[in-house]
Design a protein that fits this description.
Order of helices and strands: HEHEHEHEHEHEHHEHH
Number of helices: 10
Structural class: alpha/beta
Largest sheet: 7 strands, parallel
Shape: globular
Strand order of the largest sheet: 3-2-1-4-5-6-7
Strand content: 5-15%
Organism: Lipomyces orientalis
Protein name: Retinol dehydrogenase 14
Helix content: 40-55%
């Protein structure tokens, strides 16, 4: 029987299955997939406390007011952070660690289409935002995730199941865009999660491919050329969008399922597996090919990576490529901040 989840499964209500008082951190939460996922979590949670992180203070104020209306019993703390800078990420993480002893969910969707320049810390700008910043949040907040007594999960919305060849002579992808090097960066994200998971067997890690979702991603690109391109894209989307795109609200519902479902348990022996799912939905296969192993690469339908991807990942582990991926991440962390984590 196929493990593919139907939309009704992905949108199933939590009913009385949710533990009150969950603490969550959403980074990249003031627009697009991050915003809709944040709202779905807030709407369905019971007295949650949520830290949400973005660049726009104006958007942060708007979203906080909307969250308060969705669930007046929740507490919502907005932090304006330039996530292209790892030192700024560290500051935000220290502030959260000063306030919390444990967190249940870390949801990551930071990204930008800005390119062609480096950050002041010497990282390729879009890769700093979508890759290094996310991993810095993970390593910094991992102790709090491990301390949680209930749900313990990391979700990164990127390109799960699209893993491909890694260019070890160009980890930061300076010789191509993140779009054209999707397989490269997808494998790097999966291997980074596997590396972190070795020190956190009681936390589950999910790498999601969200499918085609129309958001305001790319609106930070300025200039007449990009204005024309956006107009052309909007016109084309009116024709083909309804046939291929996942509605934004449904995307949020799907991410809520991935962020909380017992289909994706941690790899260690623990009861903190997540919210029980609909009847017939089985435990997912991890990136190592084993059921319930703690690190998952999934599609927007909840399907795990095909066997050919698992075989490629296994090959890259055996030839030490996976080890090189995480080694260069830690080298950059230490070069920029002086430490592997805060």
């Amino acid at each position: 029987m196929s493990s593919k989840l139907e939309p009704t499964h992905l949108r199933s209500k939590w009913e009385n299955k949710v533990v009150p008082g969950l603490v969550a951190v959403f980074a990249g939460a003031t627009s697009g997939i991050g915003e809709t996922s944040l709202k779905q979590f807030a709407k369905n949670a019971v007295r949650p406390r949520i830290y949400f992180i973005g660049r726009s203070k104006e958007s942060g104020s708007r979203i906080r007011a909307e969250l308060q209306k969705l669930n007046p019993e929740g507490e919502y703390i907005y932090k304006s952070v330039d996530v292209s800078l790892l030192r700024s990420v560290d500051i935000a993480c220290r502030e959260i660690k000063d306030q919390e002893a444990a967190i249940n969910l870390l949801f990551l969707s930071t990204g930008t289409m800005l390119s062609g320049k480096d950050t002041e810390e010497g990282l390729n700008y879009p890769v700093a935002v979508a890759y290094y910043a996310r991993l810095r949040f993970i390593v910094n907040l991992l102790p709090l995730l491990r301390n949680a007594t209930d749900l313990r999960r990391v979700v990164t919305v990127f390109a799960g199941t699209k893993e491909g060849t890694i260019h070890t002579n160009d980890f930061q992808g300076r010789n191509g865009s993140m779009l054209f090097l999707r397989g490269h960066f997808s494998s790097m994200m999966t291997f980074a999660l596997e590396a972190v998971a070795k020190n956190a067997p009681n936390v589950s890690f999910i790498h999601v491919y969200p499918g085609f979702v129309k958001t305001n991603y790319g609106n930070d690109l300025k200039g007449p050329m990009f204005t024309v391109l956006r107009a052309v894209f909007d016109a084309v989307f009116l024709v083909i969008g309804p046939l291929i795109a996942t509605p934004v609200n449904e995307t949020g519902e799907r991410q809520l399922f991935f962020a909380t479902s017992a289909r994706f348990p941690e790899g260690g022996e623990s009861a903190a597996a997540g919210v029980p799912g609909p009847k017939g939905v089985t435990v997912a296969r991890g990136t190592n090919g084993k059921s319930g192993s703690g690190v998952y690469s999934i599609t927007n339908d909840g399907e795990t990576a095909p066997h050919k991807v698992e075989q490629l990942l296994d090959k890259l582990r055996k030839d030490s490529t996976a080890h090189k991926v995480w080694s260069q991440v830690e080298e950059e962390f230490v070069r920029i901040t002086g430490a592997a984590s805060v």
